[in-house]
Specification:
single chain, alpha+beta, Cytochrome p450, 2 domains, globular
Length: 451
């Protein structure tokens, strides 16, 4: 008979895995399917060993709360976040920094994301969207994911840097594409080894980061020299002062700018890309969206003042992020020994919380694989545990740009849907590819029908 004391000392259940690589081969073949299987067959706390590293996967909101909120001080960013490619790209920005340095940077950056400040960016968001729509041709077929990436890149360039990067947005976009391609596949043992061996792919990535650095440092230099406040995020970051009067160095500014550049366009572009994919498969939901847009907007360009009335638009975005969360997983590492769910967690253990899995948990979402914006009626979100749905993370390190992202996604969805119908077109299968973000592996091929 196993006593309670003995049970708490045991490791959680989990798949056995390879004797050397552990569960890495299974995970590499199908990360999302493997994690769903683990939750289904092994429960709320799952033990994995990945290439000799002990990992826990948490599949219950209470245990996720324990890591992100209640005992957040005992966990810092996990090894995935500190991998060489991501560290080289983002440096010591808000996504990757830790401890007192992170707290200082967060304190300095927070005013740039005040509601009144981000409201000023709404016109830029819709302005770039209308210009993109003017360029679209009726009946043309395109990769809508690439289109959304281009649009949100223009927007984040404007809101981050004002007019400074009007001529280099394309160059920045190309370099970011190389960098993000490098980030894909970091869950395979071949790519992990490749990070430490000189290869053509590694050199391409490092050259792309150098191009990005050159652009960003030049913009910082010009702005410092002029001293102008152009009403953008960079102006706020340049002016920010800590309690002791200190400001960000050029290197700190570079890291925060790079982090915002990446997070500020990649995640919103993905939200919209997956939304178009879902709407194309559910014409009745698209029809309900158009009905709301006609009632509220009557054909005019949406403004920030309309967002409170675009309730169905908001529900569509929330439901899209439930099914296809751009940030599909969160990782932490235990600093000291602790317990989660009655199990001993040794210092150094990697702890993972998977939005993809939690957002599809039938305990909290009826018909979890169904695209159903109406599930968000009647304050549904208040009836489920906080960490059953957490597309922007949670706790002290919740995404600083969540309000910016929601505003942008709603405005762009409303502006585009009024003027164009996006229909699924023959092309490669639409397959989610989980790397740093949840990208469509082969893009999303769609045909544009202007309204």
């Amino acid at each position: 008979m196993i006593t309670v004391a003995m049970a708490t000392a045991l490791a959680p259940p989990g798949p056995k895995g390879h004797f050397v690589l552990g569960n890495l081969p299974e995970f590499s073949r199908d990360p999302l399917g493997f994690l769903e299987m683990c939750a289904r067959e092994y429960g709320d706390v799952v033990f994995l060993r990945v290439a000799g590293v002990d990992s826990f996967v948490l599949n219950h909101p209470d245990y996720i709360d324990e890591v992100l909120v209640a005992n957040a001080r005992n966990f810092h960013k996990n090894r995935t976040t500190r991998m060489r490619p991501l560290n080289l790209l983002l440096g010591n920005g808000l996504v990757s920094s830790e401890g007192d340095f992170w707290k200082r940077q967060r304190r300095l950056a927070q005013p740039a994301f005040h509601r009144d400040r981000i409201a000023a960016y709404a016109d830029a968001m819709t302005g770039f969207t209308e210009r993109m729509l003017d360029r679209w041709q009726n009946g043309e077929t395109k990769d809508i994911h690439r289109g959304m990436m281009g649009l949100t890149l223009e927007i984040v360039a404007k809101t981050l840097f004002g007019a400074d990067v009007a001529g280099v947005a394309e160059e920045v976009g190309a370099a970011l594409e190389v960098a993000m391609d490098r980030m894909s596949g970091q869950n395979t043992w071949i790519r992990l080894i490749d990070n430490y061996v000189p290869t053509p792919g590694r050199y391409r990535f490092e050259r792309a980061v150098k191009r990005l650095d050159k652009v960003i440092y030049e913009i910082i230099r010009q702005r410092r020299a002029s001293g102008d406040d152009q009403g953008d995020l960079l102006s706020m970051l340049l002016a920010a002062q800590d309690e002791d009067g200190s400001q960000m160095t050029d290197r700190q500014l570079r890291d925060e700018v790079m982090t915002l550049f990446l997070a500020g366009h990649e995640t919103t572009a993905l939200t919209l890309s997956w939304t178009w994919h879902l709407l194309a498969k559910h014409p009745e939901i698209e029809a309900a969206l158009l009905s709301e847009l006609q009632s509220v907007l009557g054909g005019r360009t949406p403004t920030i003042g309309d967002l409170g009335q675009l309730r169905y638009t908001e529900k569509i975005i929330k439901e899209s992020m439930r099914l296809y969360p751009p940030a599909w997983s969160i990782g932490r590492e235990a600093l000291t020994d602790c317990k989660i769910g009655g199990y001993h967690v040794a210092a150094g253990t990697q702890v993972f919380m998977i939005q993809w899995t939690m957002h599809r948990d039938p305990r909290y979402f009826a018909s979890p694989d169904q695209f159903d914006p109406d599930r968000w009626d009647n304050d549904f979100e208040k009836t489920i545990p906080k960490y059953a749905y957490f597309p922007f993370g949670g706790g002290p390190r919740q995404c600083i740009g969540n309000s910016f992202a929601m505003m942008e996604a709603m405005l762009l969805l409303a502006a585009i849907a009024q003027r164009a119908k996006l229909e699924a077109a023959p092309g490669p299968a639409v397959v989610p590819a989980p790397s740093v973000t949840l990208r469509p592996k082969n893009g999303i091929t769609m045909t544009i029908q202007k309204r």
